[in-house]
Amino acid sequence: MDTSGKRTEIVNKQRWVVKIGSSLLTNNGQGLDRPAIAGWVEQMGRLRAQGIELVLVSSGAVAAGMRRLGWTTRPHEMHKLQAAAAVGQMTLVHNYEKEFLKYNLQTAQILLVHDDLASRERYLNARSTINTLIELGVVPVVNENDTVITEEIRFGDNDTLGALVANLVEADVLILLTDQDGMFDADPRSNPNAKMLNRLPASDERLDAMAGDGGALGRGGMVTKVRAARLAARSGTHTVIVGGRIDNVIDRLSKGEELGTLLLADEEPKTARKNWLAGHLQTCGEYIIDDGAAHSLRTQGSSLLPVGVTGVFGTFNRGDMVLCLDSEGNEVARGLSNYSALDSRRIAGLPSDEIEGVLGYVDQVELIHRDNLVLSLI
Ligand SMILES: Nc1ncnc2c1ncn2[C@@H]1O[C@H](COP(=O)(O)OP(=O)(O)O)[C@@H](O)[C@H]1O
Ligand SMILES: N[C@@H](CCC(=O)OP(=O)(O)O)C(=O)O
């Protein structure tokens, strides 16, 4: 294929995660927009026919459930939102199953919560199940397991889930289909002169000031999409934020057309281990680090040495994930500790050449080596 003048980062890419947001799937928050779903599935069917592997992350359970239950306004009580999601998820997957079958594609329902991806065992299970489904040619349809979570329902954030799934399957591309044509330099709802962004590195800090929230319904808006793009970038996944109502949007993206906003991953895809560190492991304790250590972690990507640590909290073993907090309690980084909490307390504040004298052994001179350390998103 002639790719000159096209988005080569997207063309011929093998593995896509497509996330369809609530604002798009629903008619003003009421029920599912079935004709629109049929249109996206038809396009995704064509992706599959080209040999592109696909995972779908779909919101819309709450809205579909509200319609089924005859509710016209979105409830505020968490248990009612969760009940609506449980009812609506049936409608949602039934709809996808019916539509994908038209193209001889089987679907599978996957319900996940962030904690599932924080347990090493469940992460590995989810990963191998989804990878197996992809190999079988099945389209996994992922949503949050709303019955057991509260935060994500409250903030309406399936963007993060999309990014975590992209990390999980090491996707090449994450497509966030939404109700705006792309990301603008200001929220177009409140700023009619806002201009759409074409491409930027996901790490570009200017994005933070441009991203607004999702408005009255308290949805994630562009804030969670930018954060998702940064999370996805950690597995080398490029993200496109794009309008789901644009004619044949998925087909056109796959041909390299410059639609929406491309947020690029760093050139160097991080190793699987780093992906894991970035979002998946449960933390077992905390290091409080001084200003000098916080500065060199943030600006030079340095390892954490005992000398920069002023406090050690929690109970952890060597190899466990520990948070690094600055003196004000802000998370600077997280990483795998080379020492248990007990030994860390004994060497905190000391120069590395004194470790052996105190402990009687030295594993590594760092408390956390930079290869096992991931800076936190600010
Ligand atoms: N800089 C921006 N560019 C585009 N949209 C923005 C921006 N800042 C805030 N938004 C808002 O984000 C909304 C989309 O986010 P959201 O409602 O969470 O959608 P979804 O359900 O697709 O995740 C848009 O309707 C828009 O008003
Ligand atoms: N998981 C829930 C809500 C998640 C949600 O709305 O997220 P988003 O599409 O990012 O605004 C649902 O299916 O209704």
From TrEMBL:
Gene3D superfamilies: Acetylglutamate kinase-like, PUA domain
Keyword Amino-acid biosynthesis annotated: yes
Domain spans labelled PUA: 285-368
Residue positions binding ATP: 19, 178-179
Tagged with keyword Amino-acid biosynthesis: yes
Record keywords, A-Z: Amino-acid biosynthesis, ATP-binding, Cytoplasm, Kinase, Nucleotide-binding, Proline biosynthesis, Transferase
Compartment(s) of residence: Cytoplasm
Coiled-coil blocks: none
Pfam families linked to this entry: AA_kinase (PF00696), PUA (PF01472)
InterPro entries reported in the protein's UniProt record: AceGlu_kinase-like_sf, Asp/Glu/Uridylate_kinase, G5K_ProB, Glu/AcGlu_kinase, Glu_5kinase, Glu_5kinase/COase_Synthase, Glutamate_5-kinase_CS, PUA
Catalytic activity: L-glutamate + ATP = L-glutamyl 5-phosphate + ADP
Binding annotation for substrate: 59, 146, 158
Entry EC number(s): 2.7.2.11
First-tier enzyme category under EC: transferase
Pathway this chain belongs to: Amino-acid biosynthesis; L-proline biosynthesis; L-glutamate 5-semialdehyde from L-glutamate: step 1/2
GO molecular function: glutamate 5-kinase activity
Major subcellular location class: cytoplasm
Role description: Catalyzes the transfer of a phosphate group to glutamate to form L-glutamate 5-phosphate.
Assigned protein family: Belongs to the glutamate 5-kinase family.
Full protein name: Glutamate 5-kinase
